[in-house]
Amino acid sequence: MSHDVLRSEHIEQGPLGDLQLARGKRCGLRIWKDHMTAKKAERTRPYEIVGYVAKGKIVLIVDGETLELVEGDSFVIPPDTSHAYAIPQPATVIEATSPPAFREPD
After folding, report:
1. pLDDT tens-digit readout, 20-49
2. What is the pTM of this model?
3. What's the pLDDT at 3?
4. Which DSSP string corresponds to the chain?
5. Residue 80: phi, psi to the nearest 5?
6. Could you list the residue range(s) of the whole structural domain that residue 53 is in?
7. Most buried among 16, 76, 87, 94, by the most CB within 10 A?
8. Does residue 38 lie within any of the structural domains?
């Protein structure tokens, strides 16, 4: 059995300010710490997104429905589903994607 460990000193910052955590062949993990952003344009992604609001509040728009999520809330965005988001105050959000996401800056 093989184990991959990503030590904290090797974690890299992604193009959107996220920290790119462990990444396997079928799932990727990242975190935004104390992150804020204006509303992002609506988009779709070819991967499933599962997230958890560890701190603060975010506004998530999925298929036209606006949801305010606070600390302790979690969410799922299926692949190829229209979504947008805003983070009006510092928040920490943990996100897993399957398959692993490669995100380019918007």
Report:
1. 888 888 999 999 999 999 999 999 999 999
2. 0.84
3. 65
4. -------GGG-EE-TTS-EEEEE-SS-EEEEEEEEEEPPPPPB--SSEEEEEEEESEEEEEETTEEEEEETT-EEEE-TT--EEEEEEEEEEEEEEEESPP-----
5. 60, 30
6. 27-98
7. 87
8. yes
Residue 1 resides in a domain: no
Number of residues that this document lists for the chain: 106
For residue 16, what pLDDT is reported? 75
Beta-carbon contacts of 98 under 8 Å, excluding residues fewer than 6 positions away, are 26, 27, 28, 47, 48, 50
Whether residue 56 is contained in a domain is answered as yes
Output the domain CATH number for residue 88: 2.60.120.10
Domain count, the chain: 1
pLDDT digits (tens, 9 = 90+) for 70-98: 999 999 999 999 999 999 999 999 999 99
Does residue 69 fall inside a structural domain?
yes
